[in-house]
Write a structure and sequence with these properties.
single chain, alpha/beta, Aldehyde Dehydrogenase, Chain A, domain 1, Aldehyde Dehydrogenase, Chain A, domain 2, 2 domains, 7-stranded mixed sheet, 6-stranded mixed sheet, 21% strand, globular, binds nicotinamide-adenine-dinucleotide
Length: 513
Amino acid sequence: MQASVAQTNDVITAAAHGTRRPVRHYIAGRWETTSGALSEPVYNPATGEVIAATPLGAADEVDRAAAAAAAALPGWAATPVVQRVQVLFRFKALLEEHFDELGALVTLENGKGVKDARGEVRRGIEVVEFACGMPSLLMGETVRDIARGIDNLSYRFPLGVVAAIVPFNFPAMIPLWTLPIAIGAGNTYILKPSERTPLSAQRLVELLLEAGLPDGVVNVVHGAKDAANAILAHPDIRAVSFVGSKPTAEYIYRTAAASGKRVQALAGAKNSLIVLPDAALEQTVENVMSSAFGNAGERCLAGSVVVAVGNASEHLVEALRARAQALRVGPGNDPESELTPLIRERHRRHVQEYVDLGEQEGARVILDGRTPPRPEGFYLGPTLLDHATGAMRITREEIFGPVLSIVRVGTLDEAIAFTNGSAFGNACSIFTDSGAAVRHFREHIQAGMLGVNIGVAGPMAFFPFNGIKGSFFGDLHVTGKDGVRFFTEHKVEIQRWFTPPVPASSTLPEAGV
Ligand code: NAD
């Protein structure tokens, strides 16, 4: 505990004194110094200061990482799964030991509040815990005696060298969506973190090595588009897991599939929060606030449109405006902050332009956060756009900022029709006391993650993270049993033995091993 408090302070102190943190590729068991290479600045979004520089890797780094992963594959895949998961158990213990430090690092490079940052580290640890159960998760199936003396069996094998390309908004959790499952299942792995938030992923890998992972099993290539394209082009990489914006996800899906890779591409979102007149007002408002404005709206599960049904709008809209206006804007490392900065200046301008657009489209700006509320960093205030409609781009396109639109409709069916008009299908929540309304909603809504009186409908690690429609390209989702299937392939065997039984010649492991 003492160590993690000290390390948390180190992270914050380093940031406060402008100490640049090194960002290095990790290939074939070596951290590589890349002085002189092309790089991209990493900012502390709360201050605007440059805290690091991400080296922009490309084909050379990806080739070497893929060669290292291919070289490590036979040994790692042949390591019994019960031994592979011992590394994950030790990794989980180290993540707990460094929990506060990791949370502080996420806050430092992403800007989100410390509570949200720790929440994402916790969600990531839960995937490690899930992957510790890999011996059970890899179990095949059998049907004995499908004909006299003939059995049918299936086994799961690792795919081989796999890669993950991840976004900036969950720099610790999203690498952990795939890394523990992929290596627990016996694959070797290449991670390309977001060039905007490389530090958390790098620290995770340092801890993984401390847990005893052999060289080459995990490799990190930093960079942006060129590194991602080199992964897509590499013939030895069997599968690509991608999380990011919709245009990039579509491109990654098409390109990876065209070269015969297995691919899952998790994309953007535009999630509705449907509020019925019988919803509990106070709790609904708090849930909407944290869904829309938590992580500054930079969440694929953010509720970005409130759909008020019937006379729900009567008290709801004013209550939302009053609560949003009172949100405390401030840096993520202040536990009192409720609205933290955006990732970059360019993204802040993009969000401001969307509010301008909403006004031009005829929505009423009932709370205007366009003027930056603090001089430093990349902050915006909360914005509410009332009387928005499904014909407006602000209700159809992902804004990814602290902007909440309000659409007013007459009935639950109209709310469902509005939501289903979206190209996206990540999450949708309903706020009501009516079981019948919830059942109707579940039957007809087109979204893959549903919340009932819950504003952020994030599933646990043992379920799939389950976007549909334009929020997901692929077949098998990340995490849960889907995650295990994505990183394994089946062999199905049918067997018959002609000779009579003989004593077993192989020995089982000793008890306690
Ligand atoms: P992004 O698409 O800009 O970047 C994601 C990754 O792709 C990064 O590693 C980046 O370097 C790489 N990349 C960017 N452009 C590329 C290109 N042209 N070719 C190849 N690679 C490229 O996304 P972002 O801004 O980092 O993340 C935010 C987006 O991610 C939002 O749209 C959000 O909804 C989405 N997201 C979705 C989920 C989900 O589960 N569906 C989860 C988190 C984030």
